[in-house]
């Protein structure tokens, strides 16, 4: 079983990522950390604990992380995720207590106390916590098996015409993460914009008839309308669980090595992930990008996890 830490900012699609990480039997969720992104750190942390209650997550430490990007002022996605960061469903009162450690310290402790190469980091929000952990304790870089992040894009953006939200909110952190000599796999908008929660998918979720499936059905009802209003999608893309799905079954995604850097100074392009797709990657390239996903198998994986937690 691959041990994973999910670093998230719930967020409707982060909720699905947490559910998938807990509900799939082939990965071991050893920690959850939160970071300011879709909403403020207090709101996304509460949301993470509420989702844990819905999914029955126990025995996993949850820790609160950075309340703002490394350099820039905070940015949120209230137009998509609402004032709470997870508008739509009724959020149960959290039952889990937060770990006493800061998220950055929890990440470091978990990586350093597990065998080298056994922990995969799965960030689904801005990369502030991950970058800070790598800078604070550089020894984790050689011990992490892989960083599989939801963020960026080979072409196009959603926060700006060229920048994806998670990268655009904290581009300095993203630059640090991509420049470390660990393996990084970027699961970006080129892939996640095809993983759509269509009416057929929503119906399959509702048909499960469990408390968790009703909760996630309500998540998708709000998310569908918000994405239609904000970005014109008839069915919303469910970004974050695509990164978790890749950890579970790498054959679900088509991935290739390619150099990736983050634009930090462009007047119109700050936060853009600059991906060099010209020919083959140079020897020793540690960055990889996803270019495709088997959507049908992805949703089968999500539905199986939702069925298991129900």
Automatic annotation (TrEMBL):
Name of the featured protein: Ribosylpyrimidine nucleosidase
Stretches assigned to the Inosine/uridine-preferring nucleoside hydrolase domain: 4-300
Pfam entry (one): IU_nuc_hydro
Keyword Lipid metabolism: no
Annotated InterPro entries: Inosine/uridine_hydrolase_dom (IPR001910), IUNH (IPR023186), Ribo_hydro-like (IPR036452)
Annotated Gene3D superfamilies: Ribonucleoside hydrolase-like
Keywords in alphabetical order: Glycosidase, Hydrolase
């Amino acid at each position: 079983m691959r041990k994973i830490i999910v670093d998230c900012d719930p967020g409707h699609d982060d909720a699905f990522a947490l559910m998938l990480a807990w509900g799939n039997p082939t990965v071991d969720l050893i920690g959850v950390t939160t970071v300011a992104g879709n909403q403020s750190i207090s709101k996304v942390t509460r949301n993470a604990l509420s989702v844990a209650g819905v999914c029955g997550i126990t025995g996993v430490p949850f820790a609160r992380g950075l309340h703002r990007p490394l350099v820039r002022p905070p940015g949120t996605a209230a137009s998509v995720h609402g004032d709470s960061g997870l508008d739509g469903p009724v959020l149960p009162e959290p039952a889990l207590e937060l770990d006493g450690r800061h998220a950055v310290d929890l990440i470091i402790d978990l990586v350093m106390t597990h065998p080298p190469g056994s922990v995969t980091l799965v960030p689904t929000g801005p990369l502030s916590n991950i970058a800070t952990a790598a800078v604070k304790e550089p020894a984790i870089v050689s011990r992490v098996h892989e960083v599989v992040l939801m963020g960026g894009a080979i072409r196009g953006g959603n926060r700006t015409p060229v920048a994806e939200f998670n990268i655009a909110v904290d581009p300095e952190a993203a630059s640090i993460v991509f420049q470390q000599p660990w393996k990084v796999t970027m699961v970006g908008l080129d892939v996640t914009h095809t993983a759509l929660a269509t009416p057929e998918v929503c119906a399959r979720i509702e048909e499960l008839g469990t408390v968790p499936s009703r909760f996630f059905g309500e998540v998708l009802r709000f998310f569908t309308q918000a994405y239609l209003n904000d970005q014109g999608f008839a069915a919303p893309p469910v970004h974050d669980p695509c990164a978790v799905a890749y950890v579970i079954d790498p054959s679900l995604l088509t991935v290739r090595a390619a150099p990736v850097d983050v634009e930090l100074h462009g007047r119109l392009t700050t936060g853009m992930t600059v991906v060099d797709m010209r020919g083959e990657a140079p020897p020793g390239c540690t960055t990889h990008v996803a270019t495709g996903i088997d959507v049908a198998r992805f949703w089968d994986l999500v539905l199986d996890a939702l069925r298991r937690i129900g």
